[in-house]
Amino acid sequence: MIQKLFNTLFKGKNGYLLGFVLCFGIVALALVIQTTYKLEPCPLCITQRMVFMGLGVLFLIAAFIPANIFKKIFATLQVLTALGGAGVAIRHWYLQANRESIIADCGVGFDYMFENFPLQKAFKLLFRGTGDCAAIDWTFLGLTLPQLGLISFLGFAAYAIYLVARKST
């Protein structure tokens, strides 16, 4: 019975749709945490949310692609996107781990960066992080949000590989 449920849930289109729902569920959970605890997301938090949404869209598109060769291409894109998100989460975690050496200035906001600076400079500022990126405002089981994001991104990379490795369509 459990095996049948497992096969139904992770088989073909359902597996990709589950990936889509989980990605956007994580973004929804981040918004709930943000509003419940009145937290202001830093640029790296926003970037991680955007990567989760992009990854979710890739899972959604992969759910409706019939050809196996395209599934492999989308699995590659999903893994690369998840690893890119993991890189952002690692950078965010690094800033939090070294917050004593980070300047206490909160820096400029996400919107301000992209509205007032050239795109190249805005991305440079975004990945440098600001003082508020070093703040640890919320934890779950002793893990910060970037650490939870890193675990999620790595899990999604493994999940994308699992889905494409299955011989089901």
List the helices and strands and how they pair.
Layout: H1 2-10, H2 12-36, H3 43-63, H4 68-97, H5 110-116, H6 119-128, E1 139-140, E2 143-144, H7 145-165
Helix pairs in contact: 2-3, 2-7, 3-4, 3-7, 4-7, 5-6
Q: What key phrases describe this protein's structure?
A:
single chain; 169 residues; mainly alpha; 7 helices; 73% helix
Describe this structure in words.
The protein has 169 residues and is mainly α. It is built from seven helices and two strands. It has helices at residues 2-10, 12-36, 43-63, 68-97, 110-116, 119-128, 145-165; strands at residues 139-140, 143-144. Strands 1-2 form a two-stranded antiparallel ribbon. A hairpin with a 2-residue loop joins strand 1 and strand 2. Helix 2 runs antiparallel to helix 3 (43-63) and helix 2 packs antiparallel against helix 7. The longest helix is centred in the middle third of the chain and has 30 residues, at 68-97. The model has no long low-confidence stretch (mean pLDDT 84).
- What order do the strands of the largest sheet run in, or round the barrel if closed? 1-2
User: Distance N terminus to C terminus?
Assistant: 21 Å
What is the structural class? mainly alpha
**Main sheet, how many strands, which sense, barrel?**
2 strands, antiparallel
Poorly predicted regions: none
SSE order, as H and E?
Answer: HHHHHHEEH
Mean pLDDT: 84
Shape, principal axes of CA atoms:
globular
Rg, rounded, reads 18 Å
Percent of residues in helices comes to: over 70%
Count of helical stretches: 7
Strand content: under 5%
Tell me the number of strands: 2
